[in-house]
Amino acid sequence: MKKRKATNRKPARKIMYCSFLLGFDGALKSDKTYALFDDCLPILSSEPKQWWVIMSAVKSYCVNWDLPFKKLCRLSTDCDWEMFEIETGRKAKVVKFTDGMFYFDKDGEDLNPVEEYFMEEMEFGVDVTFNNTPKPSDQREKRAKQ
């Protein structure tokens, strides 16, 4: 007897592995100024959609762990963009432009368009005062010298 192939099987979802380092303006309840987490996210058809999923994961993590996303001033992402490019056939541009690093500053000093967009949409960094943390311009200069 021949085995029948299942016709209603769904194709495997392609996923992107991501690691995040979130830096906050001021100490958290744990007396740290940062949080780390990893996530597996679905690969979507375009880079803007992919960034939306990535930033939504960051905000969800903050909300679920009672972290002050409005005081998020630095975000470092390490995601598998090579897998995104293989699966979609599209080149990732934002990650090459930002190197996966984002800064949020309510004064809007030295922000790129992606940072401005996610500040507005996700409210990242809207309560940042930089009383306890270096400004984005200082951090970008330091990174450029490395």
Number of contiguous helices? 5
Kindly report how far apart the N and C termini lie: 66 Å
Q: Could you spell the SSE succession in H and E letters?
A: EEHEHHEHH
> Order of strands across the widest beta sheet?
2-1-3-4
Uncertain segments are none
**Mean pLDDT figure:** 84
Strand content: 15-25%
Query: How many domains make up the coordinates?
Result: 1
The tally of strands reads: 4
Radius of gyration over C-alpha positions, nearest whole angstrom: 18 Å
Using the alpha-carbon principal axes, give the shape.
globular
Briefly note the structural class of the backbone: alpha+beta
Helix coverage percent of residues?
25-40%
Can you summarize the main beta sheet?
4 strands, antiparallel
Concise description?
The chain has 5 helices and 4 strands. The protein has helices at residues 47-64, 81-88, 94-98, 113-122, 136-145, and strands at 15-24, 34-42, 72-79, 101-103.
Explain what the structure shows.
- Strands 2-1-3-4 form a 4-stranded antiparallel sheet.
- The N and C termini lie far apart (66 Å).
- The model has no long low-confidence stretch (mean pLDDT 84).
- The chain is of the alpha+beta class and 146 residues long.
- It has one domain.
- The longest helix has 18 residues, at 47-64.
- The protein has helices at 47-64, 81-88, 94-98, 113-122, 136-145; strands at residues 15-24, 34-42, 72-79, 101-103.
- Helices cover 35% and strands 21% of the residues.
